[in-house]
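Sample 3 of the quickstart, ligand 2-acetamido-2-deoxy-beta-D-glucopyranose:
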Amino acid sequence: VNLPLKISDVTHEFVSCCLGVDGDPHFIIELPDQNDALCFNIDHKPGTIFNLVRDPPTGIVVNGQIIGDKKVIPGNKMHTYFGRFGIVNEKFGIRLMVSTKEILHNPPYFAFSSMDLQVIKDRSLTVTLRNSVKFLIILHKIWKMHQYHQDYLGFYTLDSHLFSSNVHGLLGQFYHGVNFEVSDLFPGKDPDKQDANMFVKGNELTVTRGWKRDFRQDVKNGEEVPCWFIHNNGTGLLDGVHTDYIVSGLFKTI
Ligand SMILES: *[C@@H]1O[C@H](CO)[C@@H](O)[C@H](O)[C@H]1NC(C)=O
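Result:
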């Protein structure tokens, strides 16, 4: 593992440009300037819908629904992924549903200025709202006959600068940056990994140096991104707890 030899009380403050969720729902918050990132995982049962972005002033909402493996090897952990996203632009009365199989929008036609969709078949969908909020949804195709896994989706924010200061949600709360400090790298429970103490949002957490894959550039293989992994469903990094972000429908705005 290619670790920095010494990390001494670095304070990061940034406005993130690139954050998203991909894989066994792995959230990545990238810090482009520092070539560093934060990451966490959310474990919850398939079917659950989480609010990712909610911004009342602009009327933009993004929710994601979790799907599981087709089958689980007895005694093994069930892997979960995002399988459906609901994107709402309340101001323009637009609802967009993206699943691994289809893209549906209502109304069937919309003004060019309010939403633009760019589809690359079997690969990705770029959604642009109000010319300046931009999301990328990536389709991960799994071999049809695979015994356990099924197709799933990744979600990335490409442009978030137009969101209001009230923007929230599992991802939205990081659009305007987050302050954290990392110090004291020490051997972790896993002998191949190192832990550190992180101070964030008034909490002191033990985090682990790890890697996550970012699929924005290379949809097939992804790119390894080193990140500070926050344990226990992002507890301490997230405002509240992860279950606070559960919503009852794909287009629900809490
Ligand atoms: C994450 O939360 C779920 C319940 O929402 C719980 O079952 C699971 O044990 C938690 N995982 C960790 C690592 O805290």
